[in-house]
């Protein structure tokens, strides 16, 4: 009886030891950097992140970097899902910059530098709202070049400037040419612009009025700041530029009815915009874009974050002074 009892005790201890090893074994095999997947929802976020990386060719230098970007992407995706459940006039979605934090996005892409600037050439043109067309879209007229990509450089101001210049060139010469953002970045430092660190469209127009602007194929974009100007001259000339009176949305509508117009906006909440009429923004100007048209409901705005963002690179902003778009608008005078 004692012998049988001892054998049973031994078997019990062996079973307990085996159960303990089975319990802790999987945890010991996990890397400290490997997240514990506790739900199908987390699995879905990982799957969405992998799809995002494949679609936009994102690569990471280390496992730690991968995990960090996964965490950021997951938080952004949760925010997108929460916002899309609300009754809104717009939808949010994943795009090529969904792996960035809000702070990274603002620091990298919003390069408008409006500090210590005061309008100099305010338009005195009389506005007659009744004479304005109900809708305008310069894209259908052939006056707008394809959407460009500023990359990780705060050069939005240069893209807004070239957009207006391209439209002015089309209206004057009936030809559409892509003009050089890099030339404006490299050459207009003395006018107050700072390359990838920000700038302002009127300052760029002022430089172009003195030097002209060349085409993008002759002075390609590099998404980098250079302190030397390779070519100070350009084929397309302007005589001056005009600025819309601050906050005058009727004057802006009149300008847009006549030409693509450079505008400054508060784009702090634009990171995940996908479609619809956007109105979720303040009026602290930090981004330069191009107004290419309007309807009775919204402004049609061309951005410079490639076609994966928004509506093939465009955003519709609710009519009125949404995002402060009527507060700093300007255009070249050929």
From TrEMBL:
GO biological process: proteolysis
Top-level EC class: hydrolase
Entry keyword Nucleotide-binding: no
GO cellular component, as recorded: extracellular region
GO MF annotation terms: cysteine-type endopeptidase activity
Compartment(s) of residence: Secreted
Domain Cathepsin propeptide inhibitor span(s) in chain numbering: 49-105
UniProt keyword Iron present: no
Catalytic activity: Specificity close to that of papain. As compared to cathepsin B, cathepsin L exhibits higher activity toward protein substrates, but has little activity on Z-Arg-Arg-NHMec, and no peptidyl-dipeptidase activity
InterPro entries named in the record: Papain-like_cys_pep_sf, Pept_asp_AS, Pept_cys_AS, Peptidase_C1A, Peptidase_C1A_C, Peptidase_C1A_papain-like, Prot_inhib_I29
Record EC number: 3.4.22.15
UniProt domain Peptidase C1A papain C-terminal: residue ranges: 132-333
A Pfam family matched in the record: Peptidase_C1
Keywords linked to the UniProt accession: Disulfide bond, Hydrolase, Protease, Secreted, Signal, Thiol protease, Zymogen
Top-level lineage group: Eukaryota
Stored PANTHER family: CYSTEINE PROTEASE FAMILY C1-RELATED
Membership in a protein family: Belongs to the peptidase C1 family.
Functional note: May be involved in extracellular digestion.
Protein name: cathepsin L
Record organism: Ichthyophthirius multifiliis (White spot disease agent)
